[in-house]
Specification:
GO terms for molecular function: catalytic activity. It comes from Streptomyces antimycoticus. InterPro entries: AB_hydrolase_1, AB_hydrolase_fold. This is AB hydrolase-1 domain-containing protein. The protein has 307 residues and is of the alpha/beta class. The protein has a single domain, classed as Rossmann fold (3-Layer(aba) Sandwich). 40% of the residues lie in helices and 14% in strands. It has an 8-stranded mixed sheet with strand order 1-2-4-3-5-6-7-8, sandwiched between helices.
């Protein structure tokens, strides 16, 4: 089965923006891609990808900023590692091929792909596999640029040890609690956040966490010089899960990349610094769109793209 077989032709909804649905058309489908904002046709297109145990709602603040300023067309994917579904899908095996379903689902090509945390790592691993097969995934999926938000990356296999594995496991629940805090603010007490975080950690389970960590372990093998599109790597200065130094090292290894460190925020910088994040994204997308016009190559689906 090819990566595209899991997500077949969907339908576009014309009232308030189309929804791309899987053949099952329900919330339990592995990949569901939704157009979140019609945007300005001249300002490019964006596809958002979330991290482990999150969902497309992690991009709500950024999408709202884009709507206010008339930014690019915005699409967001809900992926197999979202919410409570991650354990079931992870237990079935490799999650990386599902990335092709998300990229294929955007009519006219994905444009600039904005990927957070595990989503960034799955994206890079997927692209690397396609390149190893002798393919050009950037043309294949219409990817004009990438924004890698709080990615995990190490240059050498020797940088991984038992301490790094234990650190990742021990900080999973605190990271989830941090996500709850930035989403809910003071509406949820510290004790409740910790309780919810432990429940979500248990939903993810060993299979979900292992799917993340095995992709992280493969980052030293990424041949970054083959990632030929412009890239923007963003990190939060206070991120205790994905250290900013790893984002900087990743940007240093990419042939055309800029690294930006956002102050006074952590792993969820697109929420904590939504206005600054949206401004950086808009500038980057505009630059990419000037080089590769809106509506570039990409497989997409054969429906009309309503405006």
């Amino acid at each position: 089965m090819s990566t595209g077989d899991r997500l077949v032709r969907g339908r576009a909804r014309e009232d308030g923006g189309p929804v791309v649905e899987s053949a099952r058309g329900d919330k339990d489908s592995p990949v569901v891609v939704t157009r979140r904002a019609a945007g300005d046709p001249g300002r490019g297109r964006v596809l958002f990808l979330h991290g482990l145990s999150n969902s497309s709602s992690v991009w709500d603040a950024c999408v709202e900023q884009g709507r206010r300023t008339g930014g690019p067309e915005m699409w967001a994917a809900d992926l197999p590692w979202r919410g409570r579904s991650v354990a079931g899908w992870s237990a079935r095996g490799d999650l990386v091929p599902y990335m092709g379903d998300a990229l294929r689902a955007v009519p006219g090509g994905a444009g600039v792909v904005v990927a957070h945390s595990m989503g960034a790592n799955v994206l890079m691993e997927f692209l690397a596999r396609r390149i190893e097969e002798g393919l050009d995934p950037f043309t294949e999926f219409g990817v004009h640029g990438m924004v890698l938000v709080a990615p995990f990356y190490r240059r050498a296999a020797e940088e991984f040890d038992w301490a790094s594995l234990a650190y990742s496991v021990d900080n999973m629940a605190p990271l989830i609690a941090e996500g709850i805090r930035v989403h809910a603010g003071d509406r949820v007490s510290g004790a409740t956040r910790r309780h919810l975080a432990e429940r979500i950690r248990d939903w993810v389970g060993p299979y979900g966490w292992m799917r993340f960590f095995e992709i992280y372990l493969r980052t030293p093998a990424l041949r970054l010089g083959r990632f030929t599109v412009p890239c923007l790597v963003l990190a939060g200065a206070d991120d205790f899960a994905a250290p900013p130094a790893e984002g900087r090292a990743l940007a240093d290894g990419l042939p055309d990349a800029e690294f930006r460190l956002l102050p006074d925020c952590g792993h969820f910088l697109m929420i904590e610094r939504a206005r600054q994040f949206a401004a950086l994204l808009d500038r980057f997308v505009s630059t990419c769109s000037a080089v590769r016009p809106h509506g570039g190559p990409g497989l997409g689906f054969p429906w009309e793209h309503d405006r």
